[in-house]
Amino acid sequence: MSTPVLSVRDLTIEFDTADGVVHAVDGVTFDLFPEQTLGIVGESGSGKTVTALSILGLIPQPPGRIVSGAVLYSGLDLLRLGQAELRRVRGKDLAMVFQDPLTCMNPVLTVGCQIAEALKAHDPALGRATARARVAELLELVGVPHPQARAGQYPHQLSGGMRQRAMIAMAVANQPRVLILDEPTTALDVTVQAQVIDALRTAQRETGAATILITHDLGLIAELADRVAVMYGGRVVEAGDVFQVFSDPRHPYTVGLMSSLPRLDVDVERLSPIDGQPPSLIDLPPGCAFHPRCRLSAGRAQCRQAIPMLLQAAPGQFSACHFHAEVSSLRVAIEAEIGLTGTR
Fold first, then answer.
1. Residue ranges of domains in the chain, CATH in brackets
2. What is the pTM of this model?
3. What's the CA gap between 82 and 278, in Å, rounded?
4. For 215-238, how does the pLDDT look when each residue is reduced to its tens digit (9 = 90+)?
């Protein structure tokens, strides 16, 4: 296998709050390989976005605090770089598409001006005419109609889908090697989501960037990702090839996520929600953080007392479950309960 373009090692992040210390990310480790898409999925509060923000040095410190870990890119530990060094990397080698483009774009500058600013930040000698032409080219690349006219408009004058595509254009402007997408299709209707997905595919094809895709949408992960990491309570609980994880999950939380969603490929009589609520990151349960909601645990002492390590459960697939060998039987039992009748 090729050398990773980005490696995250034992990343642990905390936030000081009035209610106590929030353990937002706890020992997260993963590799991102060239031209690969890694999907990171989990419920709200699982640590997905905080992990992504830490890669780009966007964690406010204080109240945030990087307790341990490393983010390795081209021989550099991004967590150890100063702000001036980070600015040289951000937007050029590593770029991010944020969840809400309306709050991330400057409301008093035109869309074209902001994309041009991203270009000139890493190429100060770029002329105005060249920058204007490149902005129109980027907007056309991501499917914005009438790109020259749209470049002269302000963010509030664009639809949600167009703003998101403009953000993608800004992110890929400098041909980054790593592209981070944080919930890129949230709050968009299905038709616009499809357009944004097409824009993402075009941008990936144009840049060849390795991509981290953060989302709640398992369907989006299945469509775009090569590998997937499932997060719960600030930890990675399952990781592996996306087809392998989705077809034969080895963690009860992954089974729960998949069983709680409607499906088009099979007939089901009802859904099977995950009982309970995600844990408080201020006061995580002892042992496995998922055990209070886990049907497989059934109150076993090992689940309540020992934090499971992320270990190989199958070739190329890793699970942080003490009883990962029993997960297949749990999946079969849930499928029987929901009346899974087979492929249509």
1. 6-229 (3.40.50.300), 249-337 (no CATH)
2. 0.90
3. 35
4. 888 888 988 899 999 999 999 999
